[in-house]
């Protein structure tokens, strides 16, 4: 086809070809997807299930073994069949050669008629046609290449056998396998066994079609293949059954361990029989019992500790009240002291006492959280009001520090069921922290809400947080700068309590920070108290800040 | 282990035991069991029996003109691939197309070709001489014609320097020059079936058909049948196929024992039933065909009252032996006391009352109403009717010539009675319709010879004779041609077999076989033989002593009876058991001249 013709053809059939191509591509795409999906599912099952693996391996290995066995059996059957055939064929040839010799002995016929007489007798002995064919040659006859029975062609006797027979001494017999060709339009050549021998000037060949043997072998092969398939499937079924016996207890054990890990320490496995699996179950149960004991002990211990802290706080409060009264008195009369140093001490005492009181209050609060005694006193409130109030409270402090509080509040109310006291405490804590670490920069407070949750984010532009500190800020008594005196700042428990408070609502309290870029704390609370929180309406990382590390911080904080 | 499974045989062991038993049972050849019996395979001589082919050789470059001619003659006996190898002996421009049905000149023996003339350096003339036995026409009809022939071949040397045949003898252009052995090998006698003038009985027409391969044999057979009868039977028989009918497409297609014969549309005007009968009888000679279908122009047609797939064994009503050919019938003979008797038991039962008949070689009419026989000296033909009455045979024909005798009368199934009056060098054929005087047949092919026996076949078209050819009694078969105006022509006699040297008596056993009393080359006395009319080898019948056999009779499906004379007594011999071809002869029925009515 020339290029022009090709182009014309393309133009004519272009549309339909394109449509066909598209259709084919789509079909192929679907097919590929389906196959890939199936492969993936299969691979997943393969990875997950011991049973699938064992059954697959059993299938593969038994198929290989059965195939080898089948091939070996076929080989045996085939060689046995051929041996029998060859033996019978050689006997037949012996008889034929003896006949030829007898006929040569009494050469009543003369000339060309003799060969015909011989082959006629051999043909008469061949029984019903189809059992074998006879080909006889008189090597002394120049004008004919012998006689053949029925439609047999002389090429059916391979040249190699002829050479062998020609050069072999009288009395030797040779045989080979070859293809029997026939005269006639649509006669197909068929496989056959050819035996040949020489008697005087005569070469005699018997040709046995192996059609029947081929049929037998095909039948045997088919039966073997069928049996093999059944055997392989049977083995796979057996393997499946056996592994099921093993896998089911293992699965039960895995489920038990999962439940145990989920905190259901009373979970135990059923022990059946005395085998390995029963031993596994028993060991598992022992382990679970030990774990339960140990965890119980630890719980008791921490209970004792918490109780101790709570008790200590309570016990400290009574003497502290007395000390407070005394200190107040001293403070009010500080101007009356002659020595200004004493007055200064009284002031110092007063301030540290305040600090001690707040520390004690925080300790009590946190021990209440630890004991699980903290309760939520929820009411439906607008988060904007809470934020405004809290900001108003710390406005003075901020001005002192030179920071300006910028509010980003939504236009519509952000109602949520929250505990006013706790949320105010959290906000105050965050704002105070922001002011303290804000280095006099602006502090941005944003509020947002969506269908399920409300969020408040407090952003400062202070020193920020180092990587890893986003989580540590919530640790008890953690300080960003250990060298910093305890005189400034809070008790070191504020953020811990805030986080506990947020968690009591079912919400999150998270921190993001970057050295030099400041930090942001975000509080996210569900609108309905106790509901599960799925996401936050505000981003943890403020927009426009950070690239890779904030992400890192977020991941850390999200855990 | 749960308590339930304790105390039972483990299933694995059970399965293993069962498997082991199975394997042990399967792996052995049975050493006992019930007796399985089956029917013997039908071994009637079939056209497609195993045959032998000659493998031709290609011309060798070193061969001279004589060898090229010898090789060509040998190779032309091979029909493989349309004489491909024989054609290689010819120069390119030489036209020679023997085809599938060539005419054949049959030689007794081929003598080596002789180079007679080498005119130019590249030209040669080669002569081949031989004794011709006869010819086979392209329609398959064999005609014996003994003569010495001499044919010449022209040869030339080709550009490649090898000799090739350039000129064939005149009668070789479309034919073959084969020896008797070649013909026996490459050609096969088959029967084509045509209708006798009664339009009911089929007549076999034996021809020689080359066996190219067994696959195309059915098509060849049908094509031969469509071509009509050979010259031998032409006019005596009729074909139901309208003229111009041919075989469509690739020929007869055989699919699982069912052959499909597809004829051209000319056949639509013919009678489906009669065509089916002819085809059925012709195709049944092939063992691989059990059933067949007739199609005309691609449409399957079915004869009235039959399915479209008909068995080849159908159409018994058209059998060459007649409808009653298979019916059991009574043999007659002349009992010891001279009465016509039935020979059913050991003791002949007289049929006629009244005085004993003084006639020999009786023949009973097919309707059992009349009997005919020869007078004591054989020079008179006597008849007696009815059989059971107290009648005396009366003379129907008396020899008018000196020393003339009559052959035993022979009844045709149409009620005609035939007999030949013969002297040592002349003969006359007589035919008689019941109630009319005997008429001498105007055309009698053997009028110049002595005839010892004349038997008309059951189909009424063929007749077998024993005729003296140069002092040797020979079995020949002729045909009866009924011309317009009641003119009858009995002639075209052909020898059947040369194996029997002396024939004494003969009878039709069935349409394809004659039962003949005669001597083979090594025999010292007459013995019964079965002689196929196709010319195949004759077979002897029975074993044991027969005494001095004189007459023989046979009928389809009935035992062959031989009338013989032992120790001065006339007895009839019968084989026991009767069905066995080599069953011993038992001669214990005291009678002579046995005969069957049909």
Care to give the gist of this entry?
Chain B: Residues 218-305 form the GerMN domain. Chain A is built from twelve helices and twelve strands.
Helix vs. strand class of chain A: alpha+beta
- Oligomer state equals heterodimer
Give the proportion of residues in helices of chain B: 10-25%
Distance between the termini of chain B: 91 Å
CATH topology of the domain at 378-558 in chain A: Heat Shock Protein 90
In the residues of chain B, how many domains can be counted? 3
The geometry of chain B reads as globular
**Which architecture of the domain at 378-558 in chain A does the CATH hierarchy give at level 2?**
2-Layer Sandwich
The fourth-level CATH homologous superfamily of the domain at 378-558 in chain A is Histidine kinase-like ATPase, C-terminal domain
Return Rg of chain A in Å: 51 Å
* Spatial arrangement of strands, main beta sheet of chain A: 2-1-5-4-3
Strand content of chain B: 35-45%
Region (Disordered) (chain B): 345-379
Protein name (chain B): LpqB family beta-propeller domain-containing protein
InterPro entries (chain B): GerMN, LpqB_C, LpqB_N
Domain GerMN (chain B): 218-305
Helices and strands in order:
The complex is a heterodimer of chains A (559) and B (598).
Chain A: H1 3-48, H2 50-105, H3 112-124, E1 133-138, E2 144-149, H4 159-167, E3 173-180, E4 190-199, E5 202-209, H5 211-261, H6 276-332, H7 340-370, E6 378-382, H8 383-401, E7 405-408, E8 415-419, H9 420-437, E9 443-449, E10 453-460, H10 469-472, H11 494-504, E11 508-514, E12 518-526, H12 549-558
Parallel strand pairs in A: 7-9
Antiparallel strand pairs in A: 1-2, 1-5, 3-4, 4-5, 6-8, 9-10, 10-12, 11-12
Helix pairs in contact in A: 1-2, 2-3, 2-5, 5-6, 6-7, 7-11, 8-9, 9-11
Chain B: H1 11-26, E1 52-56, H2 65-75, H3 84-87, E2 103-110, E3 114-117, E4 123-136, E5 142-157, E6 163-167, E7 175-179, H4 180-186, E8 187-195, E9 202-210, H5 217-227, E10 253-255, E11 258-263, H6 272-283, E12 291-296, E13 299-301, E14 309-311, E15 331-335, E16 340-342, E17 349-350, E18 360-364, E19 371-374, E20 380-384, E21 394-398, E22 405-406, E23 410-411, E24 417-422, E25 427-432, E26 439-440, E27 443-444, E28 451-456, E29 462-469, E30 472-482, E31 488-495, E32 502-510, E33 513-519, E34 527-532, E35 539-540, E36 548-553, E37 561-566, E38 569-575, E39 585-589, E40 591-596
Parallel strand pairs in B: 2-7, 11-12, 27-31
Antiparallel strand pairs in B: 2-4, 3-4, 4-5, 5-6, 8-9, 10-11, 12-13, 12-14, 15-16, 15-40, 16-17, 18-19, 19-20, 20-21, 22-24, 23-24, 24-25, 25-26, 28-29, 29-30, 30-31, 32-33, 33-34, 34-35, 36-37, 37-38, 38-39
Helix pairs in contact in B: 5-6
Domain GerMN (chain B): 218-305
Region (Disordered) (chain B): 345-379
InterPro entries (chain B): GerMN, LpqB_C, LpqB_N
